[in-house]
Specification:
The structure is a homodimer. Chain A has about 550 residues and is of the alpha+beta class. Chain A is about 35% helix and about 20% strand. Chain A has 15 helices and 18 strands. In chain A, strands 6-12-13-18-17-16-15-14 form an 8-stranded mixed sheet. In chain A, strands 1-2-3-5-4 form a 5-stranded mixed β-barrel. Chain A has a 3-stranded antiparallel sheet with strand order 7-11-8, with no helix packed on it. In chain A, a hairpin with a 7-residue loop joins strand 2 and strand 3. In chain A, helix 3 packs across helix 8 and helix 3 crosses helix 9. The longest helix of chain A is centred in the middle third of the chain and has 26 residues. The radius of gyration of chain A is 33 Å and the shape is flat. In chain A, about 45% of the residues are buried. The interface between A and B is large, with 139 and 139 residues. Strand 8 of chain A pairs antiparallel with strand 8 of chain B, so a sheet runs across the interface. Chains A, B: It comes from Dioscorea alata. Chains A, B: It is an enzyme of class 6 (ligase). Chains A, B: Keywords: Ligase. Chains A, B: Its EC number is 6.1.1.22.
Chain lengths: ~550, ~550
């Protein structure tokens, strides 16, 4: 590494004054501010700047007199062309793909006829980090997304994954901005939960029983349980000390003498209790009545990773009005499809004093806002996606952000699908069954050619907390369907009537006790409210056209 | 509940046209937009508006001719005074604390001499949700924070908890805004991790072994394992079918005949394999060589909940420059103090091409930004905190947002603390020991009376990934200390030199294998980089003066 004064780390010997921030301290420019979104920032031309990044491609020219480096720092898709003279730095150390450099120099317009609109003439190389071309895992050649999944720690250095990272970041900020502008408050719902709302089978359990058992095993090895005879001895000592106390009392001995003997007795009792406690320690997972004794687990009962923050966030909607969550959720499903992860992120708004119509309104506005945001803030990355992954990605964003969403009832949707003659569906459609992805996509892609909201589903195929409609057959649920992915959002008006909710929980075969607090919200000052959930990764797949969910999350789950 | 056309949920019978959003649809105003931050929005006076909320206090007046309701909707601390005539609605149903109402009417200026600056004359009550005063858990009387911890689902309806919720939301948005303005990208680091960076003892384990064992037990009950004789019979069948094949072959029988017998043999083999698999199924947690067989767990090995996203987010800093995480982290510590939770939220920025000085710069700017944000956006809630919980809360925000942070080395800090004569510390100070909270608070509250950054700590008391200074005794670590809470931020420059990092991992007694990917970042295009972590709840405690961490997180952990 090439050292330099400005880059030397502070040491204990340095006077602290040198560590105060100074406005003159030169910071690096990010490449996005120079050539981001394809436009050159003219005001920087002719200026001295400092830039850091990784060499995408490099080559020596003019018989080794200078080198061209295509430098990228991940702030945007575009590279900055850097020219370094051989007198400045050993060029052979700079030109390999993957090398990091921090350079300083003047930003210039290149001669006419050159592709680049700007180039940096570096006269200082402040730092460099080599990358051995014989072993660097990301050579210049194009790599498959599948290959990159095995080097998750390096893949953000590729054009595709860094573009997705920027799109993901923009969608996250757009989410917070949309809800803030609409008066929603962000609420962190719990990740570890003891209420199992959707059936334990699909949930991950959170425990310290294994590590506790391991600790105990080690402990017992170093300090074995007492033997039965040790316990017997301790019991005898208690008995004897007890007799001593009684004896002294019967003799009406001095207070101090009695106190001393009582103290001795208590110590013996304590020591017996400790021995008995250790005697009863069993190695392994604690059991009780042939079952695992979760009262000895960290939380005193079984605990799981959340599958949704909805029920909990309702507590805040029913207190501070409009709220939303944005956090990780978990499913322990062993389905290794391209659309499922054990760990993924969800956005779940919840709206007070609002019904299904409001729900659909906000869902539509939110999706439109996200699409417009990408068109406004990410066009360079979106064009990359169009060129390399999905020709219609930008058209899709434009369509969704401009066309009003079509709204049809489930009943109408089923009728429409039943009358389709030009396509044979794999799954049968009839009133009462859930729509399959092929039906959803047919509705949005073929019949209406724009996003569709289907509402009022049969109650049998939807969750207990959805509000029963007056027809008693359907619930006030809605799904937003979009081209490419089908269902993007699922939502509903919540059952706010206490008796109706009790009835729904009971007829779903669920126990009432875990929902006690949820019912309490309906008992005191209940309000009509609704909400929906958007899978964040699903949204990124929709926007980018990337087909595998493992490529749109920074760290696909460890399995 | 009082129904009304606009509030009727859509049903399957309704024509879908009625569900398209109409601009005339009247939405409710939030109370913050009417009386938020203590200021009345004049342009609404004289207008018809719709407002929903919960009655804080209500009373009938004029011998039951009308009622005054103090209505709060959680959008701000202030209530809106609502006047309802007896002719509009049965008043006795409206006046109890906790009742929800959605009302419509004209916003008017009250007569001179009245405390309120505005009041709503409601002529319609569109919805109401009663709250039985004999059982409503949050009466008008002031309740302790401790009491409220037992009714987490209702406590956001109180002034204190809703004020904290708003402050928390503002700090979250301020966080995203600060980092965005400074060119940082938001990265979601994994929650479930198989790398145990800080010792398994403190981590929660994530597993499906218990539920898998339960399923297996049920399965074996319904469909018991085969007996040994069943296995023997199946083996005999395989043997016999094998002999048949051999026999037919030796007879040079017709191809079809041989194929049929091979098919039979294969079926017998398959059926034997299935029986043997079931025969080997053991109920309970799977074991291998006397230990739990984690290869049968969901991820094929042990998995834990993350304690920090730092190591993972470094992969993105070393690719897309400046990044940050904001997510939940977990510690399975059984310390039931007022400052620790099993589940809490952390913000961890990571900065490329940057050293410890940059780290301190961003940490200071970030904390100042958060403090200024609260002064600019939350003054009504902050004044409530000053009045009810911490007289100096606003002064503290002003101090921290305006005064430059003092920077001193650890060595200087220890010298200063050793020379203190007017205070006796409970913990001894000498070079080489970590500073206790009492020392940190003394430095910031007494000696410097402003935030202090202590940097360059002895390497022995800091983590392996912190960059070794040239003195070989200290590492480039820094802590930001603030009045009231002591350490608010911990950060460091990371060891970017491959050999130095290997040496640090090894001498910390850690295995190299789990850090393979982390070392790879140093092998190819390594860059100087640094980062820090801020506990989000700690920041809220600092800002509000609330002493117990359970009161500043919406859902304190289930234990």
């Amino acid at each position: 590494m090439a050292g330099d004064d400005a880059a030397t780390p502070p040491t204990a010997e340095m006077p602290s004054a040198s560590l105060n921030p100074s406005p003159e301290r030169r910071r690096r420019e990010c490449i996005a501010s120079i050539v981001g979104r394809g436009a050159v920032s003219d005001e920087l031309i002719g200026k001295r700047i400092r830039v850091g990044g990784w060499v995408k491609t490099g080559r020596e020219q003019g018989k080794g007199a200078f080198a061209f480096l295509e430098l990228n720092d991940g702030s945007c898709l575009s590279n900055l062309q850097v020219i370094v003279n051989a007198s400045v730095f050993p060029l052979a150390q700079l030109v390999h793909t993957g090398t990091s450099v921090l350079v300083e120099g003047e930003l210039k317009k290149p001669p006419e006829g050159v592709k680049q609109r700007v180039e940096l003439h570096a006269d200082r190389v402040l730092e460099d980090g080599p990358a051995d071309p014989s072993s660097y895992p990301i050579p210049k050649t194009r790599l498959t997304l599948e290959f990159l999944r095995d080097i998750v720690h390096l893949r953000p250095r590729t054009n595709t994954i860094s573009a997705i990272a920027r799109i993901r970041d923009e969608l996250a900020y757009a989410t917070h901005t949309f809800f803030r502008e609409n008066g929603f408050r962000y609420v962190h719902t719990p990740i570890i939960t003891t209420s199992d709302c959707e059936g334990a089978g699909e949930m991950f359990q959170v425990t310290t029983l294994f590590s506790d058992a391991e600790k105990l095993e080690k402990d017992l090895k170093n300090n074995p349980s007492p033997s039965e005879s040790e316990i017997e001895d301790a019991k005898l000592l208690v008995k004897k000390n007890g007799e001593d106390v009684a004896h002294l009392k019967s003799l009406k001995a001095r207070k101090e003498e009695i106190s001393a003997s009582v103290l001795k007795l208590n110590k013996a009792k304590e020591s017996l209790a400790k021995l008995e406690e250790r005697f009863n320690l069993k190695p392994g997972i604690p059991q009780k009545d042939g079952k695992i004794d979760y009262s000895r687990d960290f939380f005193g009962r079984q605990a799981f990773l959340t599958v949704s923050g909805q029920l909990q966030v309702e507590t805040h909607a029913c207190a501070v009005g409009n709220v939303y969550t944005f956090g990780p959720t978990f499913r322990a499903e062993h389905s290794h499809t391209s659309r499922h992860l054990a760990e993924f992120w969800m956005i779940e708004p919840e709206i007070a004093f609002a019904d299904l119509e409001d729900d659909m309104y906000y869902a539509e506005e939110y999706v439109k806002f996200l699409c417009r945001w990408l068109l406004d803030h990410c066009i360079e990355d979106m064009e990359f996606m169009v060129k390399n992954y999905d020709k219609s990605a930008i058209d899709r964003l434009k369509l969704v952000s401009s066309e009003p969403f079509k709204r049809i009832s489930y009943t109408e949707a089923v009728e429409l699908l039943c009358s389709v003659t030009d396509k044979k569906f794999e799954n049968k459609v009839e009133w009462g069954v859930d729509l399959a992805s092929e039906h959803e996509r047919y509705l949005t892609e073929v019949i209406f050619k724009r996003p569709v909201i289907v509402y009022n589903y049969p109650k049998e195929i939807k969750a207990f907390y959805m509000r029963l409609n007056d027809d008693k057959k359907t619930v006030a649920a809605m799904d937003v369907l979009v081209p490419k992915v089908g269902e993007l959002i699922g939502g509903s008006q919540r059952e706010e009537r206490y008796d109706a909710l009790v009835e729904r929980i009971t007829s779903a075969g669920l126990p009432l006790e875990p929902y006690h607090w949820y019912l309490v919200l309906r008992k005191f000052g209940t309000v009509k409210h609704c909400g929906f959930g958007l899978g964040f990764e699903r949204m990124i797949m929709f926007a980018t056209g990337i087909d595998n969910i493992r490529d749109v999350i920074p760290f696909p789950s460890v399995s």
